[in-house]
Amino acid sequence: MYFPNAHAQPDSPATDADCVIVGGGPAGLTAALYLARFRRRCLLLDAGLSRASYIPNSHNYPGFPPGIAGVDLLARLRVQAQEYGARLVEGWVDSIERHPGGFAVRYADRVMITRRVILACGIEDELPDMPGVHNAIRRGIVRLCSICDGYEVSGENVAVYGEAENAISHAVFLRTFTDRVTVIVHGQADACEQASSLAAHYGIRVVPDHVDGMQLTEDDRIEVITRKGDRIIFDMVYPSLGSRVRSTLAQQLGARCDHAGSLLVDDHQQTSIEGLYAIGDLVKGLKQMSVATGHAAIAATAAHNSLEANPWGGSRWAEGGTD
Asked: Rounded to whole angstroms, how far apart are CA atoms 96 and 265?
């Protein structure tokens, strides 16, 4: 733990906000909650793209024994952050530029000058070409995270669809929960020897044919149609097709990232750009909401502590609530 820089001089020129948060998922909303409770002028910009909104019912998020739907968790977090004065605005951020006061954040034909920025933009999953795929995710028929919901698979007939090595590795993890796991390797003729050995060792069926289509059945399962004309029905499918990290805003500022586009951060979640922080799925690590909220606590506290102390003098944020 460390404390605010009490000897720092206020930033000049004047700024509109102490911190702008980009992204309204669990990470961004937690950061907004912390900063609002630190009595900082905090604005959160949400494009409505949080992966959490797809979760039908999460059973591994701490504190909710019966589970909680992603939309309900997000709603609770919004209310909690707003109660302490965080401003939540719907909008897409077009660009972030350096500014003498810190950063200029452009969104919806407006510009917000802020001293610090926390990015919580997340990732975008590569999904199979399937009618109604987003609805299937919300219903738990197409699933994106076996760490989150593998326990609920419990003996079901499951397929993993994607590049051979990654898909087989994913399938081995799922064997913790079911003995009926099939890998569909997206038309790839052969997997590497190690991956093939793992599949054989764990009794994982491998289908090397190309997938021509996927569709929901009348009884809420998924039918996979291969190029050879085989039709295979599964209780659920886990795509293993990769994802895109939404790190463009940071990269345009020159922030360092790894080969996958994940932003490189220090122990306080600060990127290589001073005053710019990244949390949640934007950085390398376990893609879990509990991890993301931990990142948020670290980054929000670091951002607060990097500014001059703000002794009590009444509200510093004239307009609360949601635009």
From this structure: 18
The span from the first CA to the last CA of the chain, in angstroms, equals: 34
- Per-residue DSSP letters for 101-112? TEEEEEETTEEE
Judge whether 184 and 160 are in contact, CB under 8 Å.
yes
Predicted pLDDT at 30: 98
Mean pLDDT of the chain: 91
Contact 10, 41 (CB under 8 A): no
Q: How far is CA 131 from CA 50, 200, 211, in A?
A: 21, 32, 14
Report the pLDDT averaged over residues 78-87: 97
Question: What is the C-alpha separation between 147 and 5, in angstroms, rounded?
Answer: 40
User: Is pLDDT larger for residue 316 or for residue 87?
Assistant: 87
Alpha-carbon distance of 238 to 133, in angstroms, equals: 12
pTM to 2 decimal places: 0.91
The rounded distance, in Å, linking the Cα atoms of 188 and 200 is 17
Q: Which pLDDT tens digit goes with each residue over 163-205? A: 888 899 999 999 999 999 999 987 665 666 777 888 999 999 9
Q: Look up residue 163 and give its amino acid.
A: E
Number of H helices, E strands in the chain: 8, 16
Q: Are 277 and 292 in contact (CB under 8 A)?
A: no
190, 196 Cβ separation under 8 angstroms:
yes
* Residue 288 to residue 100: CA distance in whole angstroms: 36
Can you say whether the dihedral through the CA atoms of 306, 309, 315, 317 is positive or negative? negative
Give the Cβ contact number of residue 127 at 10 Å. Answer: 15
